[in-house]
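Batch job 17 of 40 flagged for manual review because the log was empty.
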Amino acid sequence: MREVIIACDFSSEEELKNFLKIFKDKKPYLKIGMELYYKTGAYLVKELAEQGFKIFLDLKLHDIPNTVYKAMRNLASLGVAITNVHAAGGIEMMRAAKKGLTEGANGKEVPKLIAVTQLTSTDENVLHNEILIDKPINEVVKQYAINAKSAGLDGVVCSPLEAPIIKELGLLSVTPGIRFQDDAIGDQKRVTTPKKAAELGSSYIVVGRSITAAADPLKAYERCVNEFEGE
């Protein structure tokens, strides 16, 4: 099943709740990232989960294995559906994250754990000249995904352009970098439309400004669902 996740990159709890009022009884899948989490803390995430929203908690943990293990044990109690780490932390770190998440769930459903391969703002120039990785970006994404699978993770975050690679590995692909055909791409470089993401095999798409900054966010969300899920 394919699903649309709304990137709730708002600066405050009030801004988010005003946005959600537009949806009335609908419960869209929400991504809560660093901006809002660092402003409000964990309680808002837990509250939204208790209200029936599925949450992708996008904090991209990247630290030594023991620190990530302990952090994931705490995050597991929030009731989120998906959370993530940076694949660049390595297999041992990802295994520690999975262990912490499983233990922290304490017998309840364990959130899906995914790994960020490369940010959609990263292109070949950044990869080669700033990060000093000399392999093509597709090869890097594939190797990071193989590492994530080896560590027991459920999937990865990648550009929709790399979704076919991830599908071949039997992993979920959560793909930001989604814009409607008539939208500006902003600061993301490896982007595509909801319809194209579906064709490429994305499991989930993460859509931010194309919905949240739209004149009619509900209409934009429904358009996105129709294009991606084919309804």
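Reviewer: the log was empty due to a logging misconfiguration, but the result itself is present. The chain has a mean pLDDT of 93. Unflagging and moving on to job 18.
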